[in-house]
Amino acid sequence: MAAFQNMPQAWRRLIFLIPVLIITLILASGLYTGSLPKPRMPKVVFDDSHGPFHSDCQANHTPPNLDSLPDIIRALWQPLILPITAPRFVTLDGTEKLLPPQNELVHTKPMGKRICILDVDTRDLAGEGSIFYSEGVPPWDKLGSPSAGFLSHYLYAQIHGYSYKFIRAPQYADRAPHWSKVIFTKELLKQYDIVVMMDYDAMFPSPEVPLEWMLNYWKIDRDVIVAMAEDPAGEPNFDDSEKHKVNINSGFIIAQAGEKSQRLFKDWAECPSEVRYKGCAKWAQTLFHEQAAFSTHVRYDFLDGYSIETHPQYIRMLPCQEANGIPEVSGSGCVGHLVRHYWGRKGLTNREFGHNVMAALTPLLVQAAYKEPGHVEDLRSKVLKGAEVLDKPPAR
């Protein structure tokens, strides 16, 4: 708390003003028509030198431009962001995650716009609850599940200063629309160092955690071409090869740019054409499409005949417990400590998005309204008689 109190008074006032501005804009614009979701306080643990507001993230900042929504979002979240090199983090269910030793960390500084959060979708998304609603902005109480997921991705990108792209993908005559995520991830890797492709139902339950921290935690160094989560270990989530190993899940893809990446993603995108992989044509239209193609073919034969078994440094399988699933399907072993994937309860993306927003608003509102002087008159030490209130009126 001392770090926050030592901030310049003008900067502190600006931080406290931001939630009020956002809530006022929401109410005035008609985006909010129902009741607010139940707030959820972020469970973040730091070194003893860190209070609930993080001095690491407050140094050398100038007041934001209040005409810029990205600036407002960054200012709102700034006191909560987990430092990239923070030794530990406690998830919402109380699980402690520890970084490797500091001298082994891959990232120590923010990558900013060199990271792109990518959404790819072929749907029209023009209905009343959709982000491209033809009649205006979708009302909160009618916001569709896909739109809630997409908005959470945009929010996460703005919190950390990343780039964000939404590709309204074309239809492909020879394959299911799911394949577009592979094709456009490859293309965006020509523009960015790291591309994070997310299905709409994949979300960050703790948006204060930067991607760079997760890359450090998962030890995703520059050798790693692509990282994806494992699926739950049960039918039908096994590949179609003789190895019969658990599938990867392509709803959350971390891809790093480079010549090897372009080669791997090209082979993956061409898999249904059987340019390299005999028998892959079936995955053009068959469940699980691009996911099954990668799991059955690509990971066992990529680049110069490499396999994930002989060259594991290039393809990283992320634990299902950390990067897949949600608490409601914990029986699968996948609870989504760092990345949640709502394939089991797609309708809950709205709840997650609400939590994403309120996780920032709640502590700042509490701090501004009840911890700072000026709003609370504490009369508990007084012993009064009759209708007496005070011997002198409250200070203004």
What does this protein look like?
Helix content is 28%, strand content 12%. The chain is of the alpha/beta class and 396 residues long. A six-stranded mixed beta sheet has the order 4-3-5-8-7-9, with helices on both faces. Strands 1-2 form a two-stranded antiparallel ribbon. Strands 6-10 form a two-stranded antiparallel sheet. Helix 3 crosses helix 4 (145-160), helix 4 (145-160) crosses helix 10 (349-371) and helix 5 runs antiparallel to helix 7 (259-269). The model is unreliable at 1-5, 7-17 and 23-61 (pLDDT under 50). Pfam families: Nucleotid_trans. This is Nucleotide-diphospho-sugar transferase domain-containing protein. Keywords: Glycosyltransferase, Transferase.
Helix content class: 25-40%
The poorly predicted ranges are: 1-5, 7-17, 23-61
Shape: elongated
Tally of individual helices = 10
- Mean pLDDT over all positions: 86
- Tell me the Rg in angstroms: 24 Å
Structural class: alpha/beta
Main β-sheet, spatial strand arrangement = 4-3-5-8-7-9
**E-strand count:** 10
Largest sheet: 6 strands, mixed
Output the helix-strand order: HHHEEEHEHEEHEEHHEHEH
Distance between the amino and carboxyl termini: 26 Å
User: Beta-sheet strand percentage?
Assistant: 5-15%
